[in-house]
Amino acid sequence: MMYRKTGNNRVRGWILALFLLTVSAPAAHADITFNLRAAPVNLTMADGVVVPAWGYALVSTNEDGTTTPGDDVVKVPGPTLVVPPAQNRVTVSLINQLPEETSLHILGQVLSNNSGPVWTEGHTTVTYTGSRPAENYTARVRSFSHETAGSGGVGSYRWDNFRPGTYLLSSGTNPAKQVQMGLVLPMVKDAAPGQAYTGVAYDKQLVVLFHEIDPVIQRAVADGNYGYGKTIPSSSHRAPKYSLINGKSYPDASLNPINASINPITPGQKILFRFVSACLDTHIPQFLGTYLNAVAEDGNPYDFPRSQYAFELPAGKTIDAIFTATAGRIPIMDARLDVTNAGAPTPGGMIAFLGVTDTVTITKAVYNAAGQSLGVWATSNAPGGTAELSASTSTGGTPADLGQLIYRANFGEYREVFSGVAAKPDSVTLTSSAGGSATVAVP
Amino acid sequence: MNRFSITKGLRIFGWMTVLLLGASLTAQAAIDGITGTKNPDGTVVFNLVARKGNISTSDGDSFQMWGYAVGNRVQYPGPTLIVSQGDRIMVRLKNALPATAGNTSITFPGHQVSARGGVAGTLTREAPPDGATQVIYEFTATEPGTYLYRSGTRPDLQVEMGLVGALIVRPGGGPDPAHHAYNHADSYFDQEYLYFITEMDPWIHRQVEFTPASAVDTTKYFPTNWFINGRNWPDVMSPAFAKWLPTQPYNCVLRMHPGQKILVRLVGGGRDIHPMHLHGNNFWVIAEDGRMFSSNPGVSGADLAWSDVTYKIAAGRTADAIWSWNAEKLGWDIYGHAPGDPMEPGEYAPDHGKPFPVVLPTRDSMTYGPFYSGSPFLGAGGDLPPGDPGLNANAGYFYMWHSHTEKELTSNDIWPGGLVSFMIIEHPNVPIP
Lengths: 443, 433
What we know:
B: mainly beta, Immunoglobulin-like, seven-stranded mixed sheet, globular
């Protein structure tokens, strides 16, 4: 049963008309439409466990009359939707192939075609749309806005004044269940080309989305055992086993390094990190060995940047921070230490590495025949000796490992004399842990 | 109305001060820690060994820990490393943990560290549990501030087990580095205290004691013990280096005179986030992660600091807060002065000589807390009922500084415990070491 209050809708229609006249009428709308598909998908965790989930696929994008096909692959998190700076009106059309109704919600953006929440009457199938009937104190909100029916329903959600910034698009229906099932994706919009916010310039950007999985709950949802009166009635006792960055956990190759998609990065470039939490818990992305400038949270730019090495990221929040690139292999980890895959003693979970290729220069290589030793001096582009240099030699085409070339803080340089080098090698090679190497002939 | 003059109050309590200050309130105003040894080339060296040990909790329990030891004895948290800006720091780590603990290592968030020796690890180089192999971490303490160090090897278990500590970098410039947190007047303090917060899930420690450490599933982590500087309430009030807490040397007894400025160095050593709530006055948050809130770093001081009454200290992060108290706007004279009496140092002048605004009921008509001196006036005292513990030796004012996640005011389900300590405002005549 659908309940509508015609009178209320008429008033709302007038308000909408006034709103459109005053706010949107002066400028002709630029338009972008993302065509999404929501559907079940199986995710394989780092330890091989398969977890059922719900995700989004990008079917296609229409921008000012031009259609670009997407890969139409269901992912968790869903694809990053990039709204060009010139586009103010954003529409997301949704095909819902989930077994139940869903809706779309963006924290921090005002939905323009919002006909109000959908209410449910207890555990029955009775629903109300818009407002709750008068004198009804029992109905509860199921969806924040209009729903798209399950098993093939189609819906449309429109935001007429999409603000610049970093946002989380997620399900607005039974979010305690549907958000953790994976109905999340990052949305980004720059204020101007190359500027995240007016005056906040950057060279390259990375979206880093945090997300956890409780495999028991997700399996129960997939098997129809989740909800009132079922085996798992709610998420009150949720206990995530997997802690993911961009849908993967360490040691997945996509996190080591996390920046493959924007390589090459050169020192001095400004890298914008857009942290997004699709979690139900707080995580704290922490960088080891560098500081970033936090410039915004929840799409609101700061007046002044804040220099931090870690960022408290509660559920649903976004934080933007700029890393001025230095060479090195910089660990990014959850400072709340969710760094295991399902409790395994080996490193896992929310660990990633930022890799900015090093430039190694060998300043001296001296062989001492009497002492059977090889002295090597070198510099690296990574600050403070944070890169590890390993030395090897080549003699007549045969390589030999020498071990670590040690950074001498008092000289600001790597220096080591390797003993036990029986004969003068042809060449010595240094390889940096941050990538990059140098080879010189040994005189 | 009871009205005591300063001199009378102090005369009455003088003997108690002598007796009890020595016994129960031997607080050190400076933060306890180690400053390392200097190599001939100027490098400041710390030698740490990761070892197994035990600590006591205030509910009467004891737990196996892994911790950093300077000698043979573990301490929780690890020693507070106190260095100066510009120092080259060398931390040498050996691993004498049981073999099942595996390798260990140290990360220093906020510092650019070069590591050598030992074996390669995920986050940094590691020391295998042979008690002999040495890993060396070197960095330059380029910026002053409050920092932490903690294990970078299986940190979800090793930090829980105790492999975590504080690092304080004193400013290198400025006229008085012992009384500034940073190179700016905005960070001035008279007294400084450390609030190093950690948690414990007792079951993890039991499992480590009785099963292989590799079998511990840290995703089941559920802490029920909370610590300030390695102790839970009321052990935080015992003296630093108390003989009955041999592996928990640091206390947390905060003391000040009215009008003084207090620096609170807050560190989130564990995995959770704690809303630390300071009674008595707002504080200014001047820095996080060792960086002052500044619109123009290096020039404009802490001009972006904010005033607050509860600060969430996040895991792996640090904050510095400046707090002060001088009875401002209380509306009465905390010393019980007559209008013509001389002022005390730091006294709030507008309330000088204003009378106490209520008539107190007689002694036996009131319920006294253990920290009430028997008088509302600072440094004075009064009759205490028979059986009152008389814990307020110097007739100070006690302000509870605690976590506002109220369940954290317990020690493994025993109340009171956990994340509680007190700021004690002392009469100007009471010496604070």
